[in-house]
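ok so for the tutorial part 2 we go from a plain amino acid sequence to predicted structure tokens. step 1 is just haveing the sequence, like this:
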Amino acid sequence: MEDQERIITYREEGKIRIDTYLSREEILSSRSQIQQLIKQGKIRVNNQTVKASYLLKHGDIIDVLLPEPRMLEIKAEAIPLDIVYEDEYLIVVNKPAGMIVHPAGKICSGTLVNALLYHCKNSLSGIGGVIRPGIIHRLDKDTSGLMVIAKSNLAHLGLSHQIKNRKIDKRYIALVHGKVKEEEGVIDAPIGRSFYDRKKMAVGEGKNRSALTRFRVLKSFLKYTLLEVKIYTGRTHQIRVHFSYLGHPVVGDKVYGRKKEELKINRQALHSYWLGFSHPFTHKYMEFSVSLPEDIQKCISSLENV
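step 2 — the prediction. this is what the tokens look like for a chain of 306 residues:
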């Protein structure tokens, strides 16, 4: 298969690194992929090879050779999907806890992408590449709930633009340790890679990025609080990190939570129950919601019966 060429004119006044700019504009799925293509000479500026640190200037012409996705490298698998909505442009699914969104490392099967390839065949956006076809945003493996997936590149770009501009409404239900005193509040604390454990994220560490989370109390228990959480940024593990930082870790969180749990649940009690966005083609605002999964509902019921 041949590479796809894309020509971009940089029209901003300020200077910015080319890898940062292309990553920000979501031309490719990751900054590391961009840097690799720059090394291969497949990203040029004004018909000249450049380094990833090249600072773009107003009027620069960027020539990008996008690798053609080879969808057959990831196996389509007949895994059942809980489809909430679907049309020719996008699909909204209710992801179960325990399912990884896309292949990574040695894991190449049993993911949401494997299931989507079987259901959607070849009608998935290729912008995310071979590993992440159609994927606009992600949920952690052990977080359940709503996700929207793009079936075309134009739908992908439209939805990504809404995420970038904080136009997609993502709300979660979270059961956390302790009694949250404020009825509602905002957590504005930057998140970066932990200095002490590179597999974890932390507030105010590493190359941190802004992270904004709003919450309101739905119900208070003796030693727990049920929250509705809305995120305005999509940082890795954002909700889990923010509430752990406040001293109210999510129940069942094996990474950021408590070592011993009184409640019986095999994953973090975090569920993406609400998703709202404008359809990338009709521009009609759409909202979707799903009920709490059985394991989280059982935890809540056990607290209500105390």
